[in-house]
Design brief:
This protein is 46% helix and 14% strand. It is an alpha/beta fold. It has a single domain, classed as TIM Barrel (Alpha-Beta Barrel), CATH 3.20.20.100. The chain has an 8-stranded parallel β-barrel with strand order 1-2-3-4-5-6-7-8, surrounded by 4 helices. α4 packs across α6. The protein binds NADP nicotinamide-adenine-dinucleotide phosphate. NADP nicotinamide-adenine-dinucleotide phosphate (NAP) binds next to α1, β8 and α12.
Amino acid sequence: MELVLGTAQLGMNYGVNNISGKPSFSEGFNILKKAFENGVNMVDTALAYGNSELIIGEFMSRTNRYFKIATKLPKLKYCENLKDQVEAYIEKSLNNLRVKKIDYYFLHSFEDYKNNIEIIKILKQNQENGKVQKIGVSIYDTYELDYILNNSEGFIDIVQIPFNIFDLRWIKDSILERTKEKGIEVFVRSIYLQGLLFLKKDALDKIHPKTYQYVSKLLEFAEENNMDISNLAMQYIKSHTEINYVLVGCETEEQIDQNIRNFYSDYTDKYKLIKEFAMKNYTDVEKEIIDPRLWKC
Ligand SMILES: NC(=O)c1ccc[n+]([C@@H]2O[C@H](COP(=O)([O-])OP(=O)(O)OC[C@H]3O[C@@H](n4cnc5c(N)ncnc54)[C@H](OP(=O)(O)O)[C@@H]3O)[C@@H](O)[C@H]2O)c1
């Protein structure tokens, strides 16, 4: 498994617990520097994340430190020529990032993947001409992954899914094992549910009446095992060997420090216990909690 830095936080005000706004340009630089110096060699970005691609491009060209790049194709307009749109977006990302190729190019919209095979053909051509190395789809739901597994015909190299200790949908029906068998890599995001796991009671109550109860249980279990919540959330991810990349979004240097420490610390002996705890307490967490698109705040 590899640690990847998520950079929506660097390009825009992002997250449910965000009180300080997006980091300044120099703070963003320091987060990228710290990540690079500590062995994080990939960043996840998107054209949709404000000036995130531009900051990464500026960092790489100024410091000569190059990350592998995962970025995303924005939702397309069907009334306009698809090939022109896709190619213009790819050029824009390449220019912003100041690179010649994108390592992982995700469709930001599952609907674009499902509704138009033409888009995949266009991406394939860009794979052949070397502008894009691997093609992926960023999704929210297991039915979307099921659809990809049944229809991808070898076109899809990687999927990006939200995965965390409250969201056990992805461990039902061996869906990750089936993804791996198809040779599709798994990239996970939202391991802290955008920071929800660190919220206080008042803010948790606004999301759903049961959120506080779930987070309290997590805190109790973390304390019993001498961990903090961020580490427990990370070790839960690490206990799933089907995952290839784990994405963390950071707004401060302290957070990236802590997340790197968590990622490299060895809690293998606790994996079984953590998985049992998750199964016991979080098998049916409400969709209004695990899907940030449904949050009322
Ligand atoms: N559809 C898509 O493709 C999609 C959608 C969403 C995100 N993403 C990607 O995923 C990345 C991560 O976003 P996410 O939603 O998955 O967020 P996440 O990683 O679950 O949570 C990140 C937030 O948690 C807080 N945090 C991080 N480390 C912490 C620590 N050690 N201790 C305490 N708080 C900590 C920070 O928020 P505060 O400081 O504000 O509390 C941070 O903004 C994004 O940057 C983006 O690259 C992709």
